[in-house]
Amino acid sequence: MIPLDPEKLGDKIDFDLIFGRPGSIHVEIGSGKGSFLLSQASQNPHINYIGIEWARKYYRFCIDRFGRRELQNVRMIRADASVFVSRMIPDSSISCFHIYFPDPWPKTRHHKRRFLSEGNIPFLHRCLVPNGTIRFVTDDAKYFDSSRVLFRTNSCCWDVVDFSPLPGTPFGEFVGTNYERKYRQEGRPVFAMEIRKRAWIGIHEYSPRRVLLNPSLESSDKIFRQS
């Protein structure tokens, strides 16, 4: 079954149970119409994908879309992403979080609602396997810059990964979502970064605001891509 009922998943999700097999887990926060998941799940049948979408119409659209393609390695859940990540995902279980064009909440008083926030990043760190990654793409320069600062402030916990489009991504795009295609057609700049959980700190408690000099996090030409 592609749709997941949050009330039937228990305190922590048993991924082997819901997919009927073991395998690396990728989570997309805000799946929209599912273009990214459709492309990647079709090309990588060995990877298990979960899409989180709050908008009911897009959640239903994805279920129908994946169902018609008979994809066996995708599940969809309608839930608040912050609650899902903070409460329902077991420790060290996710290989990658995909966060593409989330709501930037541009007003200053709403910044606390951004998904990449000081409150959520420790939970993302907890959920990732050692060397697991966060891939983030946005058209909002201020959101991008604030996220860069958050990761840099906690650079003892994260390493830089050079962001590259995944196989199957349309030429000239970072991730191939509907939003990216729309924004590029409008001529908006698009920003991308990928951050990796440090393996050696994987078993330790996340320590927000603990600053450790990490020269690689200052190398903007490597970590942060714009097009």
Question: What secondary-structure arrangement, pairings included, does this model have?
Answer:
Elements (H helix, E strand, L loop, with lengths): L2 E2 L10 H5 L5 E5 L5 H9 L4 E5 L3 H13 L5 E4 L3 H8 L5 E7 L20 H7 E11 L2 H13 L4 E4 L16 H8 L5 E7 L22 H4 E3 L1
Could you please describe the fold and organization of this structure?
This protein is α/β, with parallel strands linked by helices. The protein has a single domain (3-226), classed as Vaccinia Virus protein VP39 (Rossmann fold), CATH 3.40.50. Helix content is 30%, strand content 21%. The chain contains eight helices and nine strands. It has helices at 15-19, 35-43, 56-68, 81-88, 121-127, 141-153, 178-185, 220-223, and strands at residues 3-4, 25-29, 48-52, 74-77, 94-100, 128-138, 158-161, 191-197, 224-226. Strands 1, 2, 3, 4, 5, 6, 7, 8 and 9 form a nine-stranded mixed beta sheet that branches. Strand 3 (48-52), helix 3 (56-68) and strand 4 (74-77) form a beta-alpha-beta unit. The protein is globular.
